[in-house]
Amino acid sequence: MTTSLLSAEALDANEQRLLDVCDELMPDTLALTSDLVREYSVLGAETGVLQVMEQHLLGMGLTVERVPLPDSPPGAADDRYNLVSVINGTSNRPHLIFNGHLDVVPAEPVSMWTRSPWEPWQQDGWLYGRGAGDMKAGIAAMVTAVTAMQRAGFDIRFPLTLQTVIEEECTGHGALACLARDGRGDFALIPEPFGATLTTAQVGTLWFKVTLEGVPAHVLDTSAGSNAIEAIQAVIAPLKALEAELNAGREAPYDAVEHPFNLNIGRIEGGNWASSVPCHATLEGRIGFPPGVAAEEIMDKVRQCVDAAREGMGSGISAPEVSFHGFRSEGHQVNLDHPGVALLADCHRALTGEALPSVALTCTTDLRALNRYGISGTCYGPVAERIHGVDERVDIASIRHTLRAYALFLYRWGQAADGVA
Questions:
Q1: I want to staple 281 with a disulfide (CB 3.0 to 4.6 A). Which of 114, 242, 258, 270 is the partner?
Q2: Does CATH number 3.40.50.2000 belong to domain 13-202+331-417?
Q3: Cα(192)–Cα(190) distance, rounded to whole angstroms?
Q4: pLDDT tens, 50-90?
Q5: How many CB atoms lie under 10 A from the CB of residue 119?
Q6: What are the distances in angstroms from CA 191 to CA 99, 136, 311, 379?
Q7: CATH class of the domain comprising 204-329
Q8: Is the distance from CB of 205 to CB of 363 less than 8 angstroms?
Q9: What's the half-sphere exposure (Cβ side, CA atoms, 13 Å) at 145?
Q10: What are the tens digits of pLDDT across the range 182-191?
Q11: For residue 377, what are the contacts with CB-CB under 8 A and spacing of at least 6?
C-alpha cells in the first residue's frame, strides 16, 4: 500500500452511508456478541462457540475453512480448530487481516458473579458476561463491519482474511496455525478490549512451573518430615527480585509505564492429606519482560532464581525442577511507520475529531504471532472492564464505535488499494 492514504477530513457521502448501515446493524452486533458469550469456551471446550461463529460466517455468504491446531491428534480437528474466511485471496492488492480469539479464561468462582457468566445481560450501557469484552464483542464488531460493507453496496476488491481463533489465552497456537496455513498479509487489526487506542508495543511473556518433593510424616512429629508446600514458597522472593530488576531502567515506550513487567504466582498445589506433612508441591507463574529480550534469557534467570532459593528450603527437600509450558513469547514494538497505522489514525480522527491515543500493553496478544510472520498490525477495539475477573463487561457505545471504525477502515483501505486519493 502506498504511503499516500486518504485524508482524515470530513466523511464523504459513501462513508456516511456506510456508518448509517453500521448503526442499523448494531442490534445484530449485540445479538452475535450475546450468542458467543452464551457458549462456554474455556480451554478444551471451544466447540460450541466455534459452531456459532462458523454458522454466522456462512450466513454472511463467506467460505469458511477449519484450520486445526498444530500437532493435533487424529480426529481432534473435529472439536478444536480455528476458522478462516478469505475474501479475494488471489488478488494482488494490499492484504488486510482481521483477527480475534474466541477462547476465554475460566469464570470461577461463579458464585461471586451477579448473574451467570454464561448468560449475557445488559445494564446501564454495559453488556456483561465472560468473554463479552475479551473479546467476543470485538469479534462481533469486526465481522459485522464486513456485513456493513456488503449491505451498503461496497465491494471488497482487496484480499481480506478473517481469523477467529482459539488458544490465544494460553499458547497463541491458534493464530500461528492460521498463519502457517497462509502467512501472507500486509496489515492486521485485532479488536482487543483496550479501547479506541493504538497499541504501540507489548511485553514478552513466559509461563513456568517449579516442582519439588519433601518427606512425608505424621503431624504428631512434623520435624520428622520436610514440608514441600512451605519449601516451595522460598522461590517467590527471588522471583520478586527478578521482577524488580526487569522494571528498573526501563526503555521507551515502557519508560512511561510505572510497572509494566509483572510477575504473577498463579497457582500452588501440593500435599494430599491435612494431617500429613506434604511431600510434593508445584508452583506455576507468569512473568513479563521487555521487547528486545530473548525468552531464553528470562528462562535462565528463572532457573537462577530457583537455584538461589534452594539453600533456604532446608534438609529433605529434593532439588527443584523447573519447566516451561504455555506462553514463551517475546515482546515487540509495532511499526508505527506502516501506512496502516496512519490510516487507522485518520479513521479515528474522522469519527471522533481527535488524535489517536496510544498505549504500550503490559500483556500479550496475538500480535506476537503476526509479528513472527513479519506482518505489521495493532490492536484497536471496545472498552471493557474486569476482563479475567468477576462481572466482566463491555461498554456498548464502544462496540458501536469499533464497528464503525472497522467499517470505515475497510472502505478507506479499499480506496487506497484502488489508488483513490
A1: 270
A2: no
A3: 6
A4: 999 999 999 999 999 999 998 765 555 568 999 999 999 99
A5: 13
A6: 8, 9, 47, 6
A7: alpha beta
A8: yes
A9: 28
A10: 999 999 999 9
A11: 97, 99, 185, 187, 188, 189, 190, 334, 340, 367, 370, 371
